[in-house]
Specification:
2 domains; Pept_S26A_signal_pept_1_Lys-AS; about 25% strand; alpha+beta; elongated; hydrolase; about 180 residues; 3 helices; serine-type endopeptidase activity; mitochondrion; Umud Fragment, subunit A; Peptidase S26 domain-containing protein; two-stranded antiparallel sheet
Length: about 180
């Protein structure tokens, strides 16, 4: 049965090749190849650069129920700035990806917990070289650098660029961080 079907396909292809000029075949094959490449690129971009953020730690910036975000995965550590929203591999559970805001860069002196719930509000830490200090926007429901300390820049996966879903809440994330010296 398979041999009969294969023979039919070969005859059909042979007939089509005989009936068409070679220029049309090359053009048709080229266009189909470009369409396939286009689909592959779109799938790659969607899988690699669109993510889902959910949970209470980033309220009010992000919804608890979850939102789709566009992520720039080609970010170098020297381009990170205070106030950037980043995704990192969780220092507590390497199978999870978390979203946090950068509060401190290498060399910054940071108040460990301004709320005073996890550490005295007078406790400060110097952020080491190649590390950052992260915080969730909703401190009461966030496990962040107050819990696990400075985070290695090697754990940074990308910087959030925009919220893309739901469309009614589309937002381009701008860095509006005010640094007080």
């Amino acid at each position: 049965m398979l041999n009969i079907r294969l023979a039919q396909v070969v005859r059909d292809v042979s007939r089509r090749l005989r009936d068409k000029p070679w220029g049309n075949i090359a053009r048709s094959t080229g266009l189909k190849t470009l369409h396939l490449i286009n689909i592959a690129c779109a799938a790659h971009l969607f899988v690699e650069h669109v993510g889902w953020v959910a949970g209470p730690s980033m309220l009010p910036t992000m919804s608890v129920t979850g939102e789709s975000v566009l992520e720039n995965r080609m970010v170098s550590p020297e381009n990170l700035q205070r106030g950037d929203l980043v995704t990192i591999t969780s220092p507590l559970n390497p199978t999870r990806i978390v979203c946090k805001r950068i509060l401190g860069l290498p060399g910054d002196v940071i108040c460990v917990d301004p709320t005073g719930t996890l550490a005295p509000s007078t406790e400060h830490v110097l952020v080491p070289k190649n590390h950052i200090w992260l915080s969730g926007d909703n401190a009461a429901f966030s496990r962040d650098s107050r819990t696990y300390g400075p985070v290695s820049m090697a754990l940074v996966r990308g910087r959030l660029v925009a919220r893309v879903w739901p469309p009614s809440k589309f937002t381009v994330f701008r860095n509006n961080f005010n640094f007080i010296d």
